[in-house]
Design a protein that fits this description.
Mean pLDDT: 95
Structural class: alpha+beta
Number of helices: 5
Distance between the termini: 42 Å
Largest sheet: 5 strands, mixed
Strand content: 5-15%
Strand order of the largest sheet: 2-1-5-3-4
Low-confidence stretches: none
Helix content: 25-40%
Radius of gyration: 15 Å
């Protein structure tokens, strides 16, 4: 049994240490907001935060997260930056099919926590590892800018 800190709560998982965090989150803990996309850390659908840093959970073994804080999309409604990003996503109608959006949001939150008022180039660089098959990139970019403004003046 492995004890984990997920979204500020202690959770237990009964999985082998080499099991990817993605499968522990989804199959063991029922946190299905984090999506499986490629299984090779190339698409960003499985992005979560590990001690505040965006990581790809599809290639991160359970053994690598012990003693560290994991944040998933389910925890973003309680996070000031996460809440601002989600509000911007909704206001601009970013999602089309929505499959990649949890990973997109987690990446955007990671960016805004490090760089509260990012330039266009910084947004493009930070978000470049996340694939959206529907091509909502212009709306994603605009939503990151809007979330930055929300954080400056306060979320609605």
């Amino acid at each position: 049994m492995t004890t984990l800190q997920i979204n500020g709560q202690t959770q237990s998982a009964d999985a082998a240490q080499e099991t990817p965090l993605l499968w522990v989150l989804r199959d063991e803990l029922g946190l299905c907001g984090t999506k499986f996309g490629c299984g090779m850390a190339l698409c960003g659908a499985c992005t979560v935060h590990l001690d505040g840093e965006p990581i790809r959970s599809c290639i991160t073994p359970l053994s690598a997260v012990q003693g560290k804080a994991v944040a998933t999309i389910e925890g973003m409604e309680l996070d000031r930056v996460g809440k601002a990003v989600q509000a911007a996503w909704v206001e601009l109608g970013v999602a089309q099919c929505g499959y990649c959006q949890a990973g997109q949001i987690m990446t955007a939150v990671g960016l805004l926590k490090k760089t509260p008022t990012p330039s266009d180039k910084q947004i493009d660089e930070a978000m470049s590892g996340n694939i959206c098959r529907c091509g909502t990139y212009p709306r994603i970019h605009a939503a990151v800018k809007l979330a930055s403004r929300f954080l400056t003046v306060g979320v609605k």
